[in-house]
Each structure stands twice: as C-alpha cells, then as structure tokens.
Amino acid sequence: MMHMTLYWGIKVTLLFDSWKTDSWFSYLLSLLACFVFSAFYQYLEDRRIRLKAIAVSNPPQQPQSVNVTLLTPKRRASSAKFATALLFGINSAIGYLLMLAVMSFNGGVFLAIVLGLTAGYLLFRSGDEEVVAVDNPCACA
C-alpha cells in the first residue's frame, strides 16, 4: 500500500519496485543516494547555465550584407546549443525522478533531497549572480 501522508519509517520503495529498504543500512544508503543525486542535479544545472551563457555570447557569425530582409535566415545550431539542450533534457529527467522520489512521502527522503539541493546550490550555484543568460523574461518559462 502506498502512503498518501508523510511518514517517518525506514521501509520505503523509491522509484522502482526493486529499490526497497528494509533495514537502517539500506535506508541510510538510499538517503545518501538521494542527497548525492540532488546535489548532482544542481551541478548539472550550473554547467547548463554556463554553457548557455557561452552559446549566447558567441553566436555564429552571419555574413554582413547590404540588403536587410524582413525574414532573416535561420541560424545554424551550434554545438554549444546542442549541448545545452542535451543538458536541459538530462537535468529535466533528473528533476522529475527527484520529484517522484519525494512522492514516496517518506520524511527522510524528503529531507535528504531538500538538503542535497541546498548543498548543491551552495557548492555549485551560489556564484550564479555573475552569469546571466536570459531567453525569456517571463517568469513562467
């Protein structure tokens, strides 16, 4: 039976039927895995933002022409843009897996993920103020 409220037991099933904890050792190992995985999420997010800043600051050069048309030719995708998109996809998948782990409703898993995200932000992203890469100023993007 799946829990629908927050509980604090050591018996939890995370993400897969085969990932079950039944002892303190397996539970603490799972919490450590959640902590490391969520800190890694922040690391990948930092790499993605920095790569995006590089892609935005170094756009592919278009040949200068005298005639300016209303329809500009499509810009070719650079390798930095492709890598940024790939990192975005991987990071989104990790984020959804972390969300599903939190949905186990285990209090220890919740705390491990929140503390991992916090530690990862502190280690990898606390200096993000100098890196700005804005595509869309909309808050919902």
UniProtKB/TrEMBL annotation:
Quick one: where is this thing mainly located?
Answer: membrane
Provide the transmembrane region boundaries. Answer: 24-44, 82-99, 105-124
- State the membrane topology: Multi-pass membrane protein
**Coiled-coil features, chain-numbered ranges:** none
Q: Which InterPro entries match?
A: Cop_transporter
Where does the protein end up? Membrane
Q: Which domain of life is it from?
A: Eukaryota
Entry-linked Pfam families:
Ctr
Where is the secretion signal located? none
Q: What keywords is this UniProt entry annotated with?
A: Copper, Copper transport, Ion transport, Membrane, Transmembrane, Transmembrane helix, Transport
Q: Which family does it belong to?
A: Belongs to the copper transporter (Ctr) (TC 1.A.56) family. SLC31A subfamily.
Q: What is this protein called?
A: Copper transport protein
The organism named in the record is Salix suchowensis
Q: Species lineage, top-down?
A: Eukaryota, Viridiplantae, Streptophyta, Embryophyta, Tracheophyta
